[in-house]
Amino acid sequence: xxxxxxxxxxxxxxxxxxxxxxxxxxxxxxxxxxxxxxxxxxxxxxxxxxxxxxxxxxxxxxxxxxxxxxxxxxxxxxxxxxxxxxxxxxxxxxxxxxxxxxxxxxxxxxxxxxxxxxxxxxxxxxxxxxxxxxxxxxxxxxxxxxxxxxxxxxxxxxxxxxxxxxxxxxxxxxxxxxxxxxxxxxxxxxxxxxxxxxxxxxxxxxxxxxxxxxxxxxxxxxxxxxxxxxxxxxxxxxxxxxxxxx
Length: 246
Description:
Elements: E1 2-3, H1 22-32, E2 36-46, E3 52-63, E4 68-79, E5 84-93, E6 98-109, E7 112-122, E8 127-138, E9 142-146, E10 150-153, E11 158-169, E12 172-183, E13 190-203, E14 206-216, E15 222-225, E16 229-231, E17 244-245
Parallel strand pairs: 1-2, 15-17
Antiparallel strand pairs: 2-3, 3-4, 4-5, 5-6, 6-7, 7-8, 8-9, 8-10, 9-11, 10-11, 11-12, 12-13, 13-14, 14-15, 14-16
């Protein structure tokens, strides 16, 4: 492997849909950089107005003739809403504008920290997916886990969790087949969690089941939908301190 003569290499690339001549420039870059490794590599995507939409960086990178860039060491994807996604290595494909990794991935949002294994994304479309073994901490007091995948639609301010999803806090446990986490569009904080499919809520010995539940993070209240069934044990103070309502 031949190491590039320069210690710093910066490639600022616009989305090919709005960058005339990008294909020929990219072809020349790929041809000239075959079997070379670059330091401090960066790619930037732009929206329709020309503003920066996302930025992908890595300490080292290699370009292959198939229009793929392999970024390694301290790889970060910074989104326009200040969300930062980190991993050890990423394969970026200009054909389709996709990124992939099998490594551990962390997501830092203003009010949530997420970890998962493996990822796929289309930054130009506002979509990132963490593949499996998902854990999320909300406001340092609430934990969410699931088998995955986790799908992040950051233009719609939504995260969707799949397969054996469970939320735990000091009030109890909420579990379901799927949960959608909705963020406030202006404050970037979590507004509510919508659980669907085999919804179960537990607090101590008390249990309720329903087809759907909407959990308000600020108030701690839960609205049940779809023929809820509630089991209260003797001496209990009510499920989730009376926070349930039909």
